[in-house]
Structure formats: structure tokens, C-alpha cells
User: Which sequence fits this backbone?
């Protein structure tokens, strides 16, 4: 292994695993959702429940991380997770097609498959991040986090239009064929991308059976660490705020600004463009300013969360403060900066303490992230409906939820600043935030 850990080619190869993962997940959350509601005329609650199963399985992430800690190698867990993910994706398509002739059997297969997808994504995603955290030099963590997340978005962007092209004219058999092809290609890409990467890192021997601590003992030890516990709460609160506007921004733009469906879709694209810009900004600055306060990931977490809060408060003002489009773009930039800095910090903090707990730590934070993301969209939409019961103006309901999200982001800023700096053995203090957290 080089002095700087994994090089950029290896980081990009690990990003390809995220691309493969994203290509399968996008079919689950977008294409199958539409087929169930439109072609099969099922209530929207059905795909909503199935997606909720996928997020519910994220609670198992600490267990998968613990398993990779004990085994001494991460690659088999990533490959096994991708196998479960791809089989689940194919099974969900088969279940959806089967539901057209046998609803009960088809939905049962789909439910089992969505659960399998959640388990596979959790196992592969957790071990992939742990592999990155142990192999990427501290100065490269922000850029590495950006690369792997942008490449996951690339998986969404490439798969959705290509799958859509081959799905026309639609049939159940064609859906199964397209999903099977995507799953097979994704698994192959992931396996080829992983080949030999972990061998560049120092070899970790499997933990002897006699010295192996039970899972719940390790989990309790991780949660007893004040830094790990605070970061877990931070991840949950910030991701709840991050995801709560997913389902309400476009309806808000339509009601408040009389925007057409096409215009609100473009608005969502503008926000996603901002997210990408924010990620690239953090990656570029942390690399160019290495060794200076501007390279602090915690600083960028604080700025991203504070900027997200400011943009949400501006949205709650209903256009009285600033025009809508610049505010939505700014929200995206702040979200992207916060997200990639938080992932980079997660990679840094995973190495704090016993190396045999790194996967469990990452699993705890991944579980908090997945559960919060799944709950955020539902709670955001439910909160709008609840507030609309007590107010005559729908706009006021959306404004109240945006303001609540902004408050959650401010709470996240306070939690992030309470984290202690991470120390790197043999290299002195390497704080995530030299300005606000060094000591």
C-alpha cells in the first residue's frame, strides 16, 4: 500500500460498486413503483410499504459491519451484499409481473425481494464505506466521499433512461428481462471493480474464535462511546431534515407559485444540480486547502447544515425574501456540501477506537441514516396533511414543515460541533475542525 492509502484509480473502482448498487435500487424505487400504481392499478400505499421494507432492513447494518470486522476482510461482504441486492431486484420484478395474474403470490414475492434488497444494500454499502475509511488518506476523504456518491447518482442517471427505453412497449416479460439484465450487469461490474483492491491494504487476520466478543457486547461498547453516540444522533436528525422535503417541494412550488408539472420537475432537477455542485465544491476545497482550516470536514458540515436551514427558512417565507429558483439551488448546494462532508467525517470517525469495531460503528451510522431517510419523506408529507387540517391556507402548512426542517438542521449544527476531534496515531492531532473543535 502506498503512503497515501488507496490511489484515485482504486477509489474510482470502489465508486463503480456504488454505481452498480444505484442502478438496481433506482429500478426498485422508481420503475416498479410506477408499474404497480399505473399498469397494475394498485394503491400507492402498496409500493410505499415495499420501499419501507427496504429501509426497515437498514437496522441490520450494524450486524453486517460486525461480521466484516470479525472476518478480517470486507470484500466477501460487499460481494455477498451485491448478490443479495441483485437477486432481490430481479425477484421484485418477477413478483410485480406475477401480480398481474396472481396478486397475493406476486406481492408476497415482491415483499420478500424488497427485504432482500434492503439487506443486500446494507451489507454491501456498510462494508464498502468501511473499506474506504480504512484505505483512504485523511486529506482525500472529502473527495473520495464525493466520488463514490456522484458515481451512485451516475448509476441512477444511466439506468433510468436506458431501462425506460427497453421497457417500451411494456409487458411483464419485458420488465423481468430488463431487470434481470440490469442486475446481472450490476453484479458483474461490482465484482470486477472490487478485484484486488483490498489486497493493496495491510492484511487483517480473522479474529480468533476464543477472542471474539458477542455482537451485542460490541454494539453496547460502540454506543457507550460519547462521540459515536452523538454522531449517531447527528446523522439521524440531519438526515430526517434532509429527506423531509423530498415529497413536498414540488407540490409546494405548484401551489404557491402556480408552476406547471413540467416546471416543478425542472425545479427538482435544479436542486439536484445544486447537490452535485455542493459535493464537488467540498471535494475541491478540501483537496486544494489541505493542511488549512478550510480543509475541515466538520466546518463544511456546519456550513452545509446552516446553509440548508437558511434556505428552508427562505422557502417558508413563500418567496417574500428571495426568488424561488435561487433558493432551491442554494438548498441543493448546502445539502450536497453537508452530505459529502458528513460521509467523509463518518469515514474518519469509524477508525476511532478499536479497529475491530470499525464496521459496527459504520453500521450504526448507516442504520441511523437509512431509517431517518425512510421516515423523513413519510413524516414530511404526513406533517403537511396534519397542519392542513388546522389551517385554511395550504401554503401555511408547507411553510410550517419547511421551518421545522430548518430547526432540525440548526440542531444538527449544534450536535456536529459537540463532536471531539479525531486523533491519528503517530501523526499528532488530526481534528475534523481545527477552528471549532481543536484542543
Assistant:
Amino acid at each position: 500500500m502506498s503512503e497515501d492509502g488507496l490511489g484515485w484509480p482504486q477509489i474510482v473502482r470502489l465508486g463503480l460498486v456504488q454505481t452498480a448498487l444505484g442502478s438496481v435500487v433506482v429500478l426498485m424505487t422508481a420503475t416498479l413503483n410506477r408499474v404497480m400504481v399505473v399498469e397494475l392499478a394498485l394503491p400507492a400505499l402498496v409500493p410505499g410499504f415495499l420501499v419501507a421494507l427496504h429501509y426497515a432492513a437498514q437496522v441490520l447494518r450494524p450486524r453486517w459491519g460486525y461480521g466484516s470486522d470479525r472476518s478480517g476482510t470486507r470484500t466477501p461482504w460487499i460481494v455477498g451484499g451485491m448478490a443479495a441486492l441483485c437477486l432481490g431486484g430481479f425477484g421484485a420484478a418477477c413478483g410485480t409481473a406475477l401480480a398481474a395474474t396472481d396478486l397475493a403470490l406476486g406481492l408476497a414475492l415482491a415483499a420478500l425481494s424488497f427485504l432482500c434488497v434492503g439487506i443486500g444494500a446494507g451489507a454491501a454499502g456498510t462494508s464498502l464505506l468501511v473499506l474506504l475509511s480504512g484505505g483512504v488518506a485523511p486529506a482525500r476523504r472529502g473527495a473520495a466521499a464525493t466520488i463514490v456518491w456522484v458515481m451512485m447518482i451516475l448509476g441512477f442517471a444511466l439506468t433510468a433512461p436506458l431501462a425506460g427505453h427497453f421497457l417500451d412497449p411494456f409487458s411483464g416479460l419485458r420488465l423481468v428481462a430488463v431487470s434481470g439484465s440490469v442486475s446481472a450487469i450490476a453484479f458483474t461490474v461490482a465484482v470486477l471493480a472490487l478485484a484486488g483492491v483490498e489486497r493493496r491494504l495491510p492484511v487483517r487476520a480473522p479474529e480468533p474464535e476464543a477472542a471474539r466478543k458477542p455482537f451485542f457486547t460490541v454494539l453496547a461498547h460502540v454506543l457507550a462511546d460519547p462521540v459515536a453516540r452523538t454522531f449517531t444522533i447527528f446523522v439521524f436528525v440531519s438526515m430526517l431534515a434532509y429527506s423531509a422535503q423530498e415529497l413536498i417541494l414540488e407540490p409546494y412550488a405548484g401551489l404557491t407559485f402556480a408552476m406547471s408539472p413540467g416546471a416543478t420537475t425542472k425545479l427538482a432537477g435544479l436542486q439536484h444540480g445544486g447537490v452535485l455542485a455542493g459535493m464537488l465544491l467540498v471535494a475541491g476545497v478540501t483537496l486544494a486547502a489541505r493542511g488549512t482550516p478550510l480543509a475541515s470536514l466538520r466546518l463544511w458540515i456546519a456550513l452545509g447544515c446552516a446553509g440548508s436551514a437558511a434556505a428552508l427558512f427562505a422557502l417558508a417565507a413563500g418567496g417574500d425574501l428571495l426568488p424561488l429558483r435561487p433558493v432551491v439551488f442554494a438548498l441543493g448546494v448546502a445539502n450536497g456540501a453537508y452530505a459529502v462532508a458528513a460521509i467523509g467525517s463518518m469515514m474518519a470517525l469509524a477508525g476511532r477506537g478499536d479497529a475491530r469495531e470499525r464496521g459496527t460503528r459504520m453500521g450504526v451510522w448507516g442504520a441511523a441514516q437509512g431509517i431517518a431517510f425512510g421516515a423523513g419523506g413519510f413524516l414530511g408529507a404526513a406533517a403537511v396533511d396534519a397542519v392542513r387540517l388546522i389551517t385554511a391556507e395550504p401554503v401555511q402548512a408547507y411553510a410550517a414543515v419547511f421551518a421545522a426542517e430548518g430547526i432540525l438542521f440548526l440542531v444538527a449544527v449544534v450536535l456536529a460541533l459537540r463532536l471531539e476531534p479525531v486523533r491519528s496515531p503517530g501523526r499528532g492531532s488530526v481534528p475534523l475542525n481545527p477552528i471549532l473543535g481543536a484542543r
